[in-house]
């Protein structure tokens, strides 16, 4: 018996709350139902609102029959609740009442509204090849405050916000009717509904592809390098990716992020350099990697994509990864002839040698002056001609390698030039290996 009492108490509470609200505020089924969102299960808010109003009609009808309610009060409740109270009022008093528009939503919320928005959003998402989406809603402060007026009246514990209802109902429809997947973690796009202006906007997340690249030619910069309105180098890696991938992905723009960078005139050989390609605002997201890798294999540049990357990877590339050790191959010209023994002692001297290096003069205009301490681990040399040798240098990432050859007028010390006491010129530079 005790259990029945508790249930009675619960329903009395619900009707008390509903009557208190509807005396004061006109509310549609959705907005009244939201006040009781935590009651019942597998119900939509308009079903809840309608159920409460229907039972309220039972109750008021018996009060009217017993003449234990004021007619004006019945009228106010009917005007604020609408159907089915207006129906009852018409039947009893023979008067047609026009219900007031909902205090919170102005009667905007309806199943039709949700269907219409879901269809518009699904159409928009299909234009961008998006399968995983998120819906957001923006409402004005006025709407928010009106909602709070209502909820404050009855307590916030059991209610749901209007934003939440719109997001949930439309998200569900897009999933069930159009087969797209709501994704709260990593959506491919987010659609924002402006509830007041009745407009939609879409934020397309980029496609991030992870892979490696090789520079088979020289004088290719990472990003286009424009000086006084003129391209300083004929080609850049970013341009390469835009040329090769823009059409496939029908993208607005492609941005290139690499783990560190080699000099413009250095080739990137060996195992290639890790990178992420960011495809902005693509209209095609799902492309086979075979197709992509085929167009990325050209005479000048080659790249191989392994799969999708995360934002964290870019951060890692920009930070930690760029400090990993590298192997360079440098062709060096000496102003005076060299003896093979000199090169042997150079190899010995630079074994695990600490190098102090001020920002190279050639980049001082772009980067601020700073002293770096880096280490050279191993140097291997081959004398190719009296005045020409090749050196393999295994060193810390971030070491400026050309400077370790010529010394940069004493700004890099020790240097090959300083050690051999000869003027040296690095002619060609290649990156041939990097730690991962
Ligand atoms: Zn409403």
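-> sequence recovered:
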């Amino acid at each position: 018996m005790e259990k029945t009492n508790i249930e009675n108490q619960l329903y009395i509470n619900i009707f008390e709350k509903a009557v208190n609200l509807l005396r004061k505020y006109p509310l549609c089924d959705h907005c009244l139902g939201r006040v009781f969102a935590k009651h019942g299960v597998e119900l939509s808010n308009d079903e809840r609102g309608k159920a409460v109003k229907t039972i309220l009609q039972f109750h008021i009808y018996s009060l009217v029959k017993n003449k234990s309610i004021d007619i004006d009060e019945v009228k106010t409740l009917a005007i604020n609740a609408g159907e089915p109270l207006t129906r009852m009022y018409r039947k009893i008093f023979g008067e047609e009442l026009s219900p007031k528009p909902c205090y919170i939503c102005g009667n905007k919320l309806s199943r039709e509204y949700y269907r219409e928005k879901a269809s518009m959003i699904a159409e928009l998402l299909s234009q961008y090849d998006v399968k995983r989406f998120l819906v957001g809603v923006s409402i004005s402060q006025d709407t928010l405050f009106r909602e709070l007026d209502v909820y404050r009246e009855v307590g916030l514990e059991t209610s749901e916000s209007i934003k939440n209802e719109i997001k949930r109902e439309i998200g569900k429809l897009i999933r069930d009717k159009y087969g797209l997947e709501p994704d709260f973690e990593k959506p491919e796009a987010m659609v924002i509904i402006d509830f007041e202006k009745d407009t939609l906007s879409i934020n397309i997340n980029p496609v991030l592809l992870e892979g490696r690249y090789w520079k088979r030619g020289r004088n290719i910069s990472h990003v286009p390098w424009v000086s006084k309105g003129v391209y300083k180098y004929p080609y850049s890696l970013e341009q390469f990716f835009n040329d090769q991938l823009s059409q496939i992905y029908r993208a607005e723009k492609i941005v290139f992020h690499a783990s560190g960078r080699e000099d413009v005139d250095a080739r990137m050989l060996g195992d290639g350099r890790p990178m992420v390609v960011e495809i902005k605002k693509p209209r095609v997201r799902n492309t086979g990697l075979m197709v992509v890798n085929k167009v990325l294999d050209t005479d000048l540049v080659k790249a191989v994509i392994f799969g999708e990357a995360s934002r964290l990877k870019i951060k890692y590339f920009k930070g930690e990864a760029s400090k990993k050790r590298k192997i360079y191959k440098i062709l060096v010209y000496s102003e005076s002839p060299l003896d093979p023994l000199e090169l042997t002692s150079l190899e010995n001297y630079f074994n695990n040698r600490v190098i102090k290096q001020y920002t190279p003069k050639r980049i001082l205009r772009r980067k601020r002056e700073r002293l770096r301490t880096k280490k050279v681990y191993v140097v291997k040399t081959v004398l190719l001609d009296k005045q020409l040798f090749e050196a393999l240098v295994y060193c810390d990432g971030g070491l400026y390698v050309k400077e370790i050859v010529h010394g940069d007028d004493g700004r890099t010390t020790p240097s090959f030039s300083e050690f051999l006491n000869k003027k040296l010129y690095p002619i060609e530079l290649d990156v041939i290996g990097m730690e991962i």
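Residues 86 and 366 are 76 Å apart (CA to CA).
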